[in-house]
């Protein structure tokens, strides 16, 4: 198992619900990432927090809201999601520098009903 | 600009035969390149990385990859496939704090 944990591992929510995904890294890294992995689509970078600066993919809908209170914790707040948001959400961390690989958590399998 | 193309979406081999997963990249500078593996319902695990040292990189589980600048390629190989190698493999190019993923290659290993 890696040094990146994600909770919950599985989540089923209705379109009117509000929920949050949590990610924690124990590796001393200074960058954290959210990815969306849908069936038959490339891995999609949603958000990056690097050296306390947020970088985001402008195509991510506002119903996804990230929060990074410190370098070890990352949240993804979800509200009024759509069925097409059902996917595996992966968190990763790394050192924000060249040549440093990412370490991934096991993911949260999200189903929106 | 950085991008990654994985030339095969599916590869099928028999157990004990060689594996070749192809990756071409585009980068405006000397890149850092990675291969990751993802088993079903699991996160991604690093197989190996190239960071401008030796062009032939050895990774875990007997995998290796060769960086060829002239061909802008970073193909992943293994001499002899094992059933446990069945998974999806991703080629990745890095630009500081951004990582660009290929679309993935699913490897099927037949007994």
**Strand-residue proportion of chain A:** over 45%
Structural class of chain A: mainly beta
Shape of chain B: globular
> How many helical elements of chain A?
0
Most extensive chain-chain interface: A-B, 27 and 22 residues
Distance between the termini of chain B: 41 Å
Describe the sheet with the most strands of chain B. 6 strands, mixed
Rg from alpha-carbon coordinates of chain B:
13 Å
**Beta-strand content bin of chain B:** over 45%
Total number of strands of chain B: 12
State the assembly state of the protein chains.
heterodimer
Radius of gyration of chain A: 13 Å
- Count of beta strands of chain A: 11
User: Describe the biggest sheet of chain A?
Assistant: 7 strands, mixed
Q: What are the secondary-structure elements of chain B, in order, as H or E? A: EEEEEEEEEEEE
Q: Which key phrases capture this entry?
A:
heterodimer, A: 113 residues, 7-stranded mixed sheet, B: 111 residues, 4-stranded antiparallel sheet, 12 strands, 0% helix, globular
């Amino acid at each position: 198992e890696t040094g990146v944990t994600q909770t919950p591992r599985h989540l089923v929510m209705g379109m009117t619900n509000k929920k949050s995904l949590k990610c924690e890294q124990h590796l001393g890294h200074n960058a954290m990432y959210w990815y969306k992995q849908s069936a038959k689509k490339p891995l999609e970078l949603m958000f990056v927090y690097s050296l306390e600066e947020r970088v985001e993919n402008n195509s991510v809908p506002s119903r996804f809201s990230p929060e990074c209170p410190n370098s070890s914790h990352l949240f993804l707040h979800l509200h009024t999601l759509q069925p097409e948001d059902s996917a595996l959400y992966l968190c990763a961390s790394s050192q924000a520098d060249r040549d440093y690989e990412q370490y991934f958590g096991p993911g949260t399998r999200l189903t929106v009903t | 600009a950085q991008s990654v193309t994985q030339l095969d979406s599916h590869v099928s081999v028999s157990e004990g035969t060689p594996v070749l997963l192809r990756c071409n990249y585009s980068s405006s500078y000397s890149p850092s390149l990675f291969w990751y593996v993802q088993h079903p319902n699991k996160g991604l695990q690093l197989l190996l990385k190239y960071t401008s040292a030796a062009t032939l990189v050895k990774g875990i589980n007997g995998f290796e990859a060769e960086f060829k600048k002239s061909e802008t390629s970073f193909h992943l190989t293994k001499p002899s496939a094992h059933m446990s190698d069945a998974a999806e493999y991703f080629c990745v190019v890095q630009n500081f704090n951004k990582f660009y993923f290929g679309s993935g290659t699913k490897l099927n290993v037949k007994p």
